[in-house]
Specification:
Elements: H1 8-17, H2 21-28, H3 32-37, H4 47-58, H5 60-69, H6 78-93
Helix pairs in contact: 2-6
């Protein structure tokens, strides 16, 4: 959606209104360092859109949603959730600005 220059915030908010384990596992596989730096998959996304996604991810509601769904996610996939939560915590420590797009 971000690469197609669509409005991402309404879709991200809908993701939280109807959380499913599979949706959150997909989110857990996101490359957050590339999102912050603006390279790789995120290289074609404007810094403004990337910042909106980063701010959404850094919100407490994402961490709380993962914690609420952890029992519905297969135990062998919990490492993905733990890694994402660690990356989110790291993003919270970084400055809010994002790197330039390639």
């Amino acid at each position: 959606m971000a690469r197609l220059d669509l409005q991402v915030r309404p879709c991200l908010d809908l993701w939280l209104k109807q959380p499913t384990p599979n949706a959150f596992l997909q989110l857990a596989s996101a490359d957050l360092p590339s999102l912050h730096r603006g390279n790789g998959y995120w290289g074609d996304v404007t810094p403004e859109k990337r910042l909106r996604v980063l701010e959404w991810l850094k919100g407490d509601f994402i961490e709380n949603a993962f914690i609420g769904l952890i029992d519905a996610i297969p135990p062998q996939r919990h490492w993905l959730i733990e890694r994402l939560l660690d990356e989110i915590r790291e993003l919270r420590r970084l400055p809010s600005r994002v790197g330039p797009s390639d």
